[in-house]
C-alpha cells in the first residue's frame, strides 16, 4: 500500500527531470487502517522525513493538519507522535495516481501499489 511514509521518499526519475518531488496525488482513493503506534520508530524516522512535503501532502489530501514544525523534543510530545503516526502509517492510498510536479509524468496506483517503472525513452 502507498503510505505517506513511502510517498515522502518517492520522486520522479524521468530523464532531465530535476525537481520531481514531492509527487502530488491525483484522484486518490484513501483508506485508513488503525495500527499500533511505535513511538521509537517514528522518532527514528523523523530525520528522514521531508516535513514540508509531508505537510503539503496532508493538506492536499484533506487530512487532519500537522504542526508547522517538528517540536523541539518530539519523543516526549504524545499528541504530535499520534498525529504523525496517523499521517504516516494509517493513511493508505489504494488507487489513483501520483504526478510529477515538474514534468507531469503520471505514476498509476492500483491495488495500493504504485507503478514507478519508466519506458526506455524516459530513462
UniProtKB/TrEMBL annotation:
Pfam families to which the protein is assigned, alphabetical: Trm112p
Superkingdom in the source lineage: Eukaryota
SUBUNIT field: Interacts with TRM9.
Family of the protein in this entry: Belongs to the TRM112 family.
Biological processes, Gene Ontology terms: rRNA (guanine-N7)-methylation; tRNA methylation
Protein name: Multifunctional methyltransferase subunit TRM112
GO molecular function: protein heterodimerization activity
Source organism (scientific name): Allomyces macrogynus (strain ATCC 38327)
Amino acid at each position: 500500500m502507498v503510505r505517506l511514509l513511502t510517498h515522502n521518499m518517492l520522486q520522479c526519475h524521468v530523464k532531465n527531470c530535476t525537481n520531481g518531488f514531492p509527487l502530488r496525488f491525483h484522484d486518490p482513493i484513501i483508506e485508513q487502517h488503525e495500527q499500533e503506534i511505535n513511538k521509537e520508530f517514528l522518532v527514528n524516522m523523523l530525520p528522514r522525513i521531508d516535513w514540508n512535503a509531508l505537510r503539503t501532502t496532508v493538506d492536499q489530501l484533506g487530512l487532519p493538519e500537522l504542526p508547522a514544525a517538528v517540536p523541539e523534543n518530539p519523543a516526549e510530545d504524545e499528541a504530535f507522535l499520534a498525529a504523525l503516526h496517523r499521517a504516516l502509517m494509517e493513511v493508505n492510498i489504494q488507487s489513483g495516481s501520483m504526478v510529477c510536479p515538474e514534468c507531469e509524468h503520471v505514476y498509476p496506483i492500483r491495488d495500493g501499489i504504485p507503478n514507478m517503472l519508466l519506458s526506455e525513452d524516459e530513462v
